[in-house]
Design goal:
174 residues; 30% helix; 20% strand
């Protein structure tokens, strides 16, 4: 993951504020916090030698709860057998753990579709910012119409909070 971070960091504009978190004690907090052009988001870096993606239950729960609270987080996956990178929304940890890269839609129309994929780190940097802006806007619009995601605090289902949740709560012990 350190090499992946260095690969991406070299393409990040100098006016972006980035903080690499070295958390060896768990808790699920992602690896990198980014604040760019008025938008902040978290990135969980994942490197895999196979199609399987190793994501802890703490990481799944943290990213899911953060996204449900209106925050933006991503999983950035790099299979070592390829120069490609794949960017997924933070709410998709369970699917990534379950299906790995085999469950990814790369144009077939089935499976989990990445928010961005490619082998150009500069394109990734732009893709992350665009995706983050889009998710923030989506959350704000959903909250205003009362049809968006639940807050992620308190109740565990969209029905209990008076709103339908886009993604079901993963539950304890994900």
């Amino acid at each position: 993951e350190t090499l992946l971070w260095k690969r991406i960091q070299s393409k990040i504009p100098p006016h972006w504020n980035t903080t690499r978190i070295e958390n060896r004690y768990g808790g699920g907090v992602p690896d990198v916090h980014v604040c760019a052009e008025g938008v902040s988001f978290w990135v969980e870096l994942k490197v895999t030698k196979t199609n399987a993606i190793n994501i802890s239950s703490h990481q799944i729960a943290w990213n899911y709860a953060y996204c449900m609270s209106g925050g933006v987080s991503f999983y950035l996956v790099h299979p070592l057998s390829s120069p490609h990178l794949y960017l997924f929304g933070g709410v998709h940890g369970r699917e990534l753990l379950k299906s790995g890269l085999r469950g990814v839609d790369l144009g077939s129309g089935s499976g989990l579709r990445p928010l961005w994929s490619g082998d150009n780190e500069s394109g990734l940097v732009v893709g992350m910012l665009e995706a983050a802006r889009g998710l923030v806007l989506s959350h704000l619009q959903g909250r205003g119409s009362r049809s968006g995601r639940e807050s992620g605090r308190g109740s565990r289902s969209g029905r209990e909070s008076g709103r339908e949740s886009r993604y079901p709560w993963p539950g304890p012990g994900v």
